[in-house]
Amino acid sequence: MPLAENRKRARSDAEKKARKAAILAAARAMIGKDGFEGVTMNELARRADLSKGTLYLYVRSKEELFLALFENALEDLVVRIESEADAANLLEVMARAPQEVPLFLPLLARLMSVIDINVADEPLFAAKRRMFALGARVGEVIANLTGAPHEEARDAASVLMLAMQGAAQSDLSAQRDPATIPDDLKPAYAAHAFARRFPAAVRLILGPLFQNATAA
Amino acid sequence: MPLAENRKRARSDAEKKARKAAILAAARAMIGKDGFEGVTMNELARRADLSKGTLYLYVRSKEELFLALFENALEDLVVRIESEADAANLLEVMARAPQEVPLFLPLLARLMSVIDINVADEPLFAAKRRMFALGARVGEVIANLTGAPHEEARDAASVLMLAMQGAAQSDLSAQRDPATIPDDLKPAYAAHAFARRFPAAVRLILGPLFQNATAA
DNA sequence: ATGGATAAATGACCTTGGGTCGGATATAAT
DNA sequence: ATTATATCCGACCCAAGGTCATTTATCCAT
């Protein structure tokens, strides 16, 4: 429901924002229903009730669309971590939250290898600035809750991000329909799931920060 | 130089293997010259001196081609680690070797999100088996050189692989021409280089294994 | 040497899908 | 009402991955 009853065009900024939001919502719905590979700009325009030409008035490219979805998801994740984590449950929250924000992991896994080449410079740089800021906020949380020195906490946060990116990619293959996997590979595929691999990374990377805090 | 002087067709298995090797070599050359995005199957056929139809007799899809390149690179990496690493330089070798095997990092960064959807089942499963085996060999090296308990070493190796995948992705954006990066983002881009991020991960993840070995 | 039989090689062709553009028209301004 | 503006539309363009009927190099039996 992007526009009011009798209106056929978005002229005010508010209406335009609503259109863009409707497009993002339609994209999310398509991804949920047909998976990422099922998302085409033709079909997305149809689902969002606009023509392809109009779609491209609101989104400069397919990757820019996905980037917008990812930014939203990342923001959700950071807010969630900030609000849920405390000194007692930090490891558990860090391991769980990424899976619980819809689309965060599949977007993280797919996006980084394409945005730099398919997104125009200015929107890309703007997005990077926002994303770096969000990353820094996670670093803050880790530093505050572990009590570790800031530099050490920042290093650990950086390494944790690497592991998260890797785990997100790893998770992609684990999503395959088990019925199509040969028996001997089933355990290996299952072991690639984010939920199976990432918690160990969190423990290994963040665990030592707690001890070092008391030592220092 | 895939075939002998007066021969125009590959009939023996040896000749076919030579053709395939020539195709892979041409692909590597193209990647080196024009980057990954510059590789098209049309151009690759031209460079390898065959028609497109013939190219597809030797390679089932573009992704299968890249997968073959990646397997070669991964094998190189593992052999390199096995032969160079000792108890004294393990961390340094693990941090350095991935960058020194040509194409390993950019392939690792790009491949995982597409092979599961664009490679036929049988070649994919065969490749996964070989890749899992190679991964296990790295785990062995880590276990042997650190003296850590096997389970602990395997967990650490697994987490290190995640970080490596993440760092490979991270490195992609760092490859951007610095001249096109706004000043305020230059430090952030530079900090995403593999060489800047991965060594810390190696230290954090593998370092503790040495201490635990004496403790246990 | 000769004549099929086999299968490697070819390139025109197909399909898909991201992205564009000039004309049509809803909305706002006067 | 008239005009100006900018949204909207969808037919169109093009790149690129992948296919297939046909051609022909090579092999082998005679």
Helix content of chain A: over 70%
N- and C-termini, Cα separation of chain A: 57 Å
Content of β-strand of chain A: under 5%
Q: Any idea what the radius of gyration of chain A is? A: 20 Å
Multimerization status: homodimer
Count of alpha/pi helices of chain A = 11
Largest interface, C-beta closer than 8 angstroms, per-chain residues = A-B, 41 and 41 residues
Report low-confidence residues of chain A grouped into runs of 5 or more. none
SSE succession of chain A:
HHHHHHHHHHH
Biggest sheet details of chain A: none
Please state the overall shape of chain A, judged from the principal axes of the Cα atoms: globular
- The structure class of chain A reads mainly alpha
Number of strands of chain A: 0
Mean pLDDT of chain A: 94
Describe the protein's architecture and organization.
Two copies of one chain form a homodimer. Chain A is mostly helical. Chain A is 75% helix and 0% strand. Chain A has eleven helices and no strands. In chain A, helix 4 (62-84) packs across helix 6 (104-111), helix 8 packs across helix 9 and helix 9 (150-174) runs antiparallel to helix 11 (194-215). The termini of chain A are far apart. Chains A and B meet through helix 8, helix 9 and helix 11 of A and helix 8, helix 9 and helix 11 of B. The structure holds a DNA duplex (30 and 30 nucleotides).
